[in-house]
Design goal:
Blueprint (H helix, E strand, L loop, with lengths): L3 H16 L11 H7 L7 E5 L7 H4 L7 E5 L7 H14 L3 E7 L3 H11 L7 H20 L5 H22 L2 H9 L3 E7 L6 E5 L2
Parallel strand pairs: 1-2, 1-3, 3-4
Antiparallel strand pairs: 4-5
Helix pairs in contact: 5-6, 6-7
Length: 205
């Protein structure tokens, strides 16, 4: 079993290769490898990321088929199905690292900030379900920093939302709480920069 510390190091090394334009693993998929994975999987990390097309997780971390268990949803929010997916992978595959991965200039964060400042009735209930999960994390920022530069406000909101999602996973599931306390599971928060290609691990490390 790969420990959380070892898994985190693998992700950091892979991201460095990606950011430097020197990926090693993303081109190594072969028919033989795909066939070998039909017998099962042992992903070394679970990634809860945003579904933004500019943030493909396997590419960002320079990993291959079978390496990562990826859950992607707009705004990297934690919904019941996401919690269940993390529980499943951690329990079934023994994966001991969970990364909540947000990214700079997140559209879901911008939409939430816009809604808080200029409420609209035109948004669908389904999109509202995403906005409403982000709202508690970012609303305090508006209450205390309404005059802040908009880009700075978005940056702070992205981080606040990542922290909130990571904390939700740490404290919102009896299964995960038990794995954290007794089995070495670690949940960390990270932000991917669209401009540099680098991931900064800043919460829970």
């Amino acid at each position: 079993m790969t420990t959380a510390k070892e898994a985190l190091q693998l992700l950091k090394e892979g991201n460095e290769r990606f950011a430097a334009g020197e990926p090693l693993r993303v081109t190594q998929s072969t028919p033989e490898q795909r066939t070998s994975l039909t017998a099962g999987q042992t992903p070394f990390a679970i990634i809860l990321g945003c579904s933004d097309s500019r943030a493909p997780v396997e590419l960002i971390f320079d990993q291959n088929l079978g390496d990562l268990f990826v859950i992607r949803i707009a705004g990297n929010i934690v919904a019941p199905s996401g919690v269940g997916s993390v529980e499943f992978a951690a329990d079934q595959f023994g994966t001991r690292l969970v990364v909540v991965l947000g990214h700079s200039q997140c559209g879901a964060i911008k939409a939430t900030l816009d809604e808080l400042q200029r409420p609209t009735e035109k948004r669908s209930p389904n999109l509202d379900s995403i906005v409403n999960r982000i709202r508690p994390a970012v609303q305090p920022l508006l209450e205390f920093r309404r005059d802040e530069d908009p880009s700075e406000l978005v940056s702070k909101a992205v981080r606040a939302n990542i922290r909130a999602s990571a904390n939700h996973l740490r404290h919102g599931s009896a299964v995960l709480e038990n794995l954290i306390e007794n089995e070495g599971l670690v949940v960390v928060g990270a932000e991917y920069s669209l401009s540099t290609g680098r991931v900064e691990f800043f919460d829970g490390v």
